[in-house]
Write a structure and sequence with these properties.
Length: 292
C-alpha cells in the first residue's frame, strides 16, 4: 500500500470521525438520529463563505466564527423544535422524520439564499502540500486531522470530568432517573446538540475548503459518519473514531485496488457485515436480557 493511500485514508477518517462523534453524542443523549446534521454541515461552510465574502473577514476568522454560529443554530433546533415535540409525546420515528424535514427545509433555504451553483471558500492561490513519508499532505488536511484529535480528547474530558458531561451520561443511560436525580434534561439535550453540531460544523468547513460548496454537500458525509459510528459502536466515546479510521482505510484500499466505482458501495457492504456479525460495533458491548 502506498504512503499516499494511507495519508488519504487518515484524512478522510478525520472528517468521518468529526461527524460520527457529533452524531453519536446526539444519538446517545437526545435519542435522536438527526438527519438535519447534514444541513448543519453544509450551513457551516456557507456561514464561513458569507463571513468571508460579505462581511469581509479573513478566511481563518470566517472559519473560526462559523463553527460557534452553526453550533448555536444546532442547539436552537433542540430548543425550538425537538424539545417541544417531545413534550407532546413525539418519539423515535416522529423525531427522525422531523429531522429529515428540517434538513430539506434548511437545504432549500441555502439554495434560495446562495443559489445552487458551486461556491469556492478556499483561497484561489495553489499551495504545495508538505511531504510526509513520500506522500503529500495539505495544510487543510493537517488541520482537519489535528481538529479531529483535539475534539476527541475534548469529548472524553467533557464526559469524564465536567458536570455537564456526567449529566449527559446520566441522560443517555436513563432519562427519567436522571430527571428524578435533579439533572436538567432539557438543558443537557440543548448543550449536547450544540456540541454535536459544533463537531459536525468543524468537519463541514474543512470539507468546504477541500471540495467547495453546494447546498446538498452534507448528506453523503453524514451517511459516512453514521456508518462509522455504527461500525465503531455509537454508545462508546472512542468507538466512532475507531470506526471512522476502519471505514476510511477499507474505502481507500478498495479505491486503490478496484477504482472509484466501489468507493461508496463498500461502506455499506462493511456496515451490513457488522450488522450481521457484530451489531454492537467494534467497541460496543452486547446487551444481555434478563428474564424473571
Amino acid at each position: 500500500m502506498s504512503s499516499q493511500v494511507i495519508v488519504n485514508a487518515v484524512v478522510a477518517a478525520s472528517w468521518y470521525a468529526l461527524i460520527a462523534l457529533g452524531f453519536s453524542l446526539t444519538l446517545r443523549t437526545n435519542g435522536l438520529l438527526n438527519i438535519a446534521h447534514a444541513a448543519v454541515l453544509a450551513l457551516s461552510g456557507y456561514v464561513a463563505f458569507f463571513l468571508k465574502t460579505t462581511v469581509s473577514l479573513p478566511l481563518t476568522a470566517a472559519v473560526i466564527f462559523a463553527v460557534p454560529i452553526t453550533a448555536g443554530i444546532g442547539g436552537l433546533m433542540e430548543f425550538a423544535i425537538f424539545s417541544p415535540m417531545r413534550r407532546r409525546g413525539a418519539r423515535g420515528l416522529v423525531l427522525l422524520l422531523s429531522s429529515l424535514g428540517l434538513y430539506v427545509v434548511l437545504q432549500n433555504i441555502l439554495s434560495l439564499v446562495f443559489g445552487d451553483d458551486l461556491k469556492i471558500l478556499r483561497s484561489q492561490r495553489v499551495v504545495e502540500g508538505f511531504n510526509v513519508a513520500g506522500a503529500r499532505v495539505t495544510a487543510i488536511d493537517a488541520m482537519a486531522l489535528a481538529s479531529a484529535v483535539a475534539l476527541l480528547v475534548t469529548f472524553v474530558l467533557f464526559v469524564k470530568i465536567t458536570r455537564g458531561g456526567r449529566g449527559s451520561q446520566a441522560v443517555s443511560s436513563d432519562c427519567e432517573l436522571a430527571a428524578v436525580s435533579g439533572v436538567d434534561v432539557g438543558r443537557v439535550r440543548v448543550v449536547s446538540l450544540c456540541i454535536g453540531s459544533a463537531s459536525v460544523a468543524v468537519a463541514g468547513v474543512f470539507i468546504a475548503l477541500d471540495t467547495d460548496l453546494v447546498p446538498t454537500m452534507g448528506l453523503h458525509p453524514l451517511l459516512m459518519g453514521i456508518v462509522a459510528a455504527l461500525i465503531g459502536g455509537s454508545r462508546s466515546l472512542l468507538g466512532p473514531a475507531l470506526g471512522a479510521l476502519f471505514l476510511a482505510v477499507v474505502q481507500h484500499v478498495v479505491l486503490w485496488q478496484l477504482g472509484a466505482g466501489w468507493h461508496e458501495a463498500v461502506a455499506f457492504v462493511v456496515l451490513l457485515g457488522f450488522l450481521l456479525l457484530r451489531p454492537e460495533g467494534l467497541l460496543g458491548k452486547k446487551v444481555r436480557k434478563s428474564t424473571v
